[in-house]
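ugh finaly. both done.
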Amino acid sequence: MRLTDPIIREGPQLKVDYVACDSLGTRGMCVCIQTPDVVVTVDPGASLEPAHFPMPAERRNALLDEYDAAIRSACGRSQLVVISHYHLDHFSERRDTERYGGKTLFVKNQEGLPAKQIETARAFQNVIDGLPKETIIADGRKFKFRKTQISFSPPVWHGAEDAEPGQVIMTEVSWGKEKVLVTSDVGGPLETATTDLIADAKARTVVIDGYPTYMLGQFATDHDLVRSIVNVCRILATPAVKTVVLDHHMARDYRYPALFKLVYEKAKQLKKQFGTAAEVMGRTSAVLEGYQNYGPTRWHKWFPLEAADARAVLERAVAEGKLGKDWPSLFDGWVA
């Protein structure tokens, strides 16, 4: 081989590390993406799983410590760190040199956020003052690091349109034809405009926060669950997509294999890799392991969500004026 010969790279050049996610046993959605040029950690935070997570408090605390250390390690080898919004399971408000020192920090614009998040963001900026190499407002912008492109979506809703938690930014990392998209908290996704952005990105790997079924009957509804199922199936059907990881909110509920049965079936039909971060890593999700070892906490009886029942949910929501009349036909097109 001569020095002037081109270097031929074999295999994928984007390495995706699921650092700290709910399916691993801690409340978070931290993903580290490594390209030949740069390492970027998205959402470097974690929180304690709630009391209905089927594990003793001692085990949940131990997992939080373990994965907080993993996040700090990922940030330690990263040049770039992304904060998609200011909820404390997506960043750490501590003055942490390993997490933020010398980093280029991409952050969500504070404008238009709920007052509590603005207060949190301002306090955080004061705490870390002097640590990052630079702090850049990322909303809707693109950046180049040699052959690596980092793109951020315009603000999208944290769940349904006009949702109380406000908005977040999605992160896309690409190198050549390889591309990874991390949605952060889009609630399923729920909104068609957000789903359009995800599908149009044509990423090979998409990491999504699944719909928060553990809040059904409180702040979540059955028709929004089915809307999210329709949208995830649409994303799975995007030809460029090879892997969809559905985690975070979804993986706090040990009923999720039954509630998202239609999505698992669609992924199998389309021959796409699909599951929680733990599942795509070949592991059992922590919430299922906890349920198997310690038994139920909140839910003692449930059933798989079948196609006929899911469509009936949408029909009822349309009849009640809660959804547009096109949702049953969208269900037929993407899910059934």
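ok and the 2nd:
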Amino acid sequence: MHARNRTAAILGMVMAMLATLVVSLVLSPPARADQVISDIAYAPAQPAGSRGHLLDLYLPAGGITPRPLLIWHSGSAWSSDDGKNGAAAIAAVFNAKGFAVAGVSVRSSSQAIFPAQVHDIKAAIRWLRAHAADYQLDPNRFAMMGDSSGGWLTEMATFTGGVAALEGTVGTPGVSSALQAGLAFYSPTDFLQMNAQNLPGGGLDHNSPVSPESLLVGCAIQTCPSTVALANPVNYVDGNDPPLLFLHGQADFLVPHGQSVLLYNKIKASCGNAQFISIPGADHGKADVMDPARFGTQTTYTTTNCYGTTQFGTPNPTWDTFEQYLRGALKMGTSCQVTYATTTWSNGFTGSVTIRNTGTTPIDRWVLTWGWPGNQQITAAWNTTLTQTGAQVSARDAGHNAVIGASSSTNFGIEATYSGTNTAPPEFRLNGILCARVLG
């Protein structure tokens, strides 16, 4: 256990590291967004003039609609009311993948103690869902991502979708605050065990009255265990939670790696769904846990339906890996095959399109898009809701065929006219991902 007389020095180091992290996020390339809407008030400021009830929304150019939404909150040891900072860097990655991104701020621990921060994030989620149609968001595909205390907030929101006592009265009432997936980086999960899990060489004194955790809950954590229990994400885990992917470096000096071990074990024991990527040598920061120099050294623990598996060296913690996880967790599909066959007559044809889900997770609601290389004009379609604008076509499920299970397929048909060439579409995309193409 770290000596208390070093608390102030370590806290200073914590804040310096967090400030460096925030700067690196802010200075990242701008988001590839069609529209950026800044400083949306999802609830009145509290206290007046503060920024804890603001969000920024990054809407992608193009892609399918309604869009899946990824909510981001930057960690600060609960010391900042501007957690939406850093979302531009996340949007720079995920807007290009078809996701809308919302950077959300919540109140700092100096402005309000727990559970205010959970009340705030739930209010933001409710506001975003209530306004989903305004921004072409898919209210059934909301995910959240955060690092450090932002990861804690992600886990609290992911695990407490049905906990009425944590809804609070902030902002928009009467709308679900549930998430469909979470992705957390190096998060605290059980405050009372943090000191015992510190690295042998030392670490932050989490038991100090002025530690970030104590300031969050309003008391030195070892003196108020019942209050702390309510702030521990691990205590809300059950088998009905949405899936969670979380990462932790084994050399984390600020939040012990053992915190994620505790969480994984609890999710597995509860028959929940989770993936835990453990990275040797990585400290506290996304640049550390996502460092390509460490690719292949990680261990990945996956638990589904009470059964756990362990993989060594795969998958690498990259943005593409996170996209694949989110697409699977949100039931958008991770890989697909489209078989396209036609029967042609003079200036016309009928087409059969078979979509096969080649991924391991189900697809719930789909949009298949393609572009014609010739002058094909669709005149009729069945088993789909279809629109054509110029050469671009979007075929949506017809309701009864919305779900495509893993290794399962569905099909629909079209009738069209053409002049000149009737060449098959060069590619098909299902919910935004490129499918393997088979010509019948």
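summary for the 2nd one i guess: The first strand starts at residue 33 and ends at 41.
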